[in-house]
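It is worth pausing here to work through a concrete case rather than discussing structure prediction in the abstract. The textbook approach is simple: state the sequence, then state the predicted structure, then interpret. We follow exactly that order.
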Amino acid sequence: MSKRTNTLSEQQSRQVAHIYPESVKLNALKLWLITGNLREVAASMNIKYDTLKTWKSSKWWVEMSEDIRTEGHIALSHKMQQVATKAIEVTMDRLENGDHVLSPTGGILRKPVAMRDAHQVAISFQDRALKLETGNQTEHNPAVVDRLQSIADAFAKMIKPPKQLDVIDVEYKESEESIPDGA
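Step two, the predicted structure:
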């Protein structure tokens, strides 16, 4: 019986130990809105990933994220602003000057960033900005849909169907008349 009581008290103490103040929850939400990655938030704020998943599925998380998005501002703490600014600065430096690589002689060189990596960074930033602006809405704007359809039609016109070739059946017959050697 004492073992069961011990187990219950351990569980209760773990639950009490993992009660976070509202400010920590709000900062986690804000950081998630910026990064879009719960694992990064968990690592940077030292909060269990499962706890963040639970918070994300809770009603308060959804309401607060909608409030922040609709108000159009994310009032980040000073430290989070510095982290976001530094990450963007480092990314810009790498895009402009290249990645640091070790040269065969042991020195450090700057190798231009691969086009694929630069493209991925651009897409990531655009997607994140669009999600923050629209609040992940799934509504379709009729003007955008019409524009996309017109672009699709233009591409369809550019694609030319393969030309039909007239094929002539030819039979090969060996002729008895041959060209003399040495002629």
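Step three, interpretation. The chain has eight helices and two strands. The two ends are 114 Å apart (CA to CA).
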